[in-house]
Amino acid sequence: MLKVENLHVNYGGIKAVQGLTMDIRDNQIVTLIGANGAGKSSTLRSIMNQVAKSGGSVVCDDVDLTNMPTRDIVKQGIALSPEGRHVFANLSVRENLVLGAYTVDDKDAINKRINHAFELFPILGERSWQKAGTLSGGEQQMLAVARALMIQPKILMLDEPSLGLAPILIQEIFDIIKQIHEEGNTILLIEQNAKKALEIADYAYVLETGKPILEGPGKTLLADPRVQAAYLGEKKNAEAAANAEETAQAE
User: Fold this and answer.
1) Taking 50 as the threshold, does the pLDDT of residue 250 lie above it?
2) Which of 38, 9, 24 minimizes the C-alpha distance to 160?
């Protein structure tokens, strides 16, 4: 479905992404994990042509998106829910959703999609005329995802959907991501919570300082000692347990 080939993104002398190749297949959840500054968000923004590529290509269903304007990439069925939500704070929940469907001309279709969004996110339906800026962080994140779904995308790209949320809301967001996937949607997920991302991912890529270093099925990488040590806190937890045991023995 979506093929990213040898992608490079530079910001001046900074090499944000260096030679990333990804193959995202129909109805998969694919996740891209790595530390802050690894190039994950730059990858999504370059797919959408919000930042310039220094090299490489992006193709979706045999259509070359590499140099296509962002608005036309959206028309090809690629949607991005950005990091930081970026809802239109002074507009209502419903108005935000209508803007998400700006490529759709059929008012009946827009209303059906809004109703579906309210089925996925009942709290948004309850607050449909409330200004987006007055919603909680979790509600704004739900709105950002719902807005991206308004074009009924071939591929939904989610950039840090759980960032800054309380643990109970993080679980809710991941339950919704799984539900969206079960409805037949293909998802490219960037997520700081590597454990949860790998648990639901069909396939995963690991970036380190812009370079792809590992890839494989999500559950395979979840069990990989290198991933556990670097991104899942296993090494830190083991060291903490050893230190606690040494302290107890000393006492």
Assistant:
1) no
2) 38
Residue with tokens 């209303």: 111
**Structure tokens that stand for 199 in this block:** 């648990």
Phi, psi for residue 187 in degrees, rounded to 5: -130, 130
C-alpha pair distances (Å), 235 with each of 33, 99, 193, 239: 18, 45, 16, 6
Helix, coil or strand: residue 81:
strand
Contact present, 155 and 123 (Cβ < 8 Å):
no
**Contacts (Cβ under 8 Å, ≥6 apart) of 1:** 24, 25, 26, 60, 61, 154, 155, 186
Average pLDDT score over residue span 183-212: 93
pTM of the predicted model, to two decimals?
0.88
- Rounded CA-CA distance 128/121 in Å is 11
Task: Give yes or no for residue 101 having a pLDDT over 50.
Answer: yes
